[in-house]
Automatic annotation (TrEMBL):
GO terms assigned for molecular function: diguanylate cyclase activity; kinase activity
Reaction(s) catalysed (UniProt annotation): 2 GTP = 3',3'-c-di-GMP + 2 diphosphate
Highest taxon listed in the record's lineage: Bacteria
UniProt keyword terms in alphabetical order: Kinase, Transferase
Organism of origin: Marinobacter subterrani
Record EC number: 2.7.7.65
A UniProt-annotated Pfam family: GGDEF
Name of this protein: diguanylate cyclase
The UniProt record lists the keyword Ligase: no
Cofactor: Mg(2+)
Amino acid sequence: MAMTDFEANSFHWLVDMLESVEVGLVVLDLDFRVQAWNGFMENHSGITASKIRDQVLFDVFPDIPKAWLARKVDAVALLNTRAFTSWEQRPYLFRFRNTRPITGTEEYMFQNLTISPLSGVTGEVEKVCLMVYDVTDIASSKRALERANEQLATLSMTDRLTGLLNRGTWENLVDAEFERYRRYGHTTSLVMLDIDHFKPVNDSHGHLAGDEVIKHTASITRNAIRQSDSAGRYGGEEFGIILPETDAEGARIICERIRESIELSVVETSVAPIRYTISIGIAQLTDEPENYMQWMQLADEALYAAKEAGRNRVVVR
């Protein structure tokens, strides 16, 4: 039956709309051969509709996850219902470069995907339509917000001057390590260290020079401990270290390394080169402390003993 002029015009308008719409439209048969490929897809892939027609999608785009898409399409065809997937589940189906200057921070286009069944005259699903939505703006904004929130979370846990854990965060970890010992009995040691004669450094050279000394202590400490260890700035010129799976002798070896590195180094400040030392106290956890605060008190007592014995030394309680 021939088309009427009205039907022909309507079809032309429909085709024109599908070509110009800012959504990717791809029609596939159930063998994944491309039956339709609109202007959006041409523009972003660089492949014309005439060139890709009747080709198997996976042959042209081998990086598309074949098993994943096949499962989706099979479910759509079997159930005769739409399927959706967002960029948060899979960033993109087609690896198109991001062409939006406003979201130039993202290398690739983020995409939402809708897969719709297309039925023939018998009512059986013969084809599927992939609708590809460019959601790069939305994804970029959300990712930027998540990064900002992560940075805020990190800032709230760390000491601004040294980058080590702040007192509250570090004390929480001491509490958690104490409870871990109570439950599993794993060997663990706590360290408290303090910069010797820090007040004269501040009085003689000023607070900026004092800050450089504090940052230097933090840097030496961070470089001397393992990834599983946790160092924090406890306050002023005092620092703490949690050493899991470490007995008192193992802790002493680590602390001697820190003490010696600091004794042999010179902090070059804008005012003057500064040499300084630290005192360190160690307490291996036993069944004696009733809570983490008592464990910290034992490490503090060892630190006090190091100060009383002449400073620049490590004392194990």
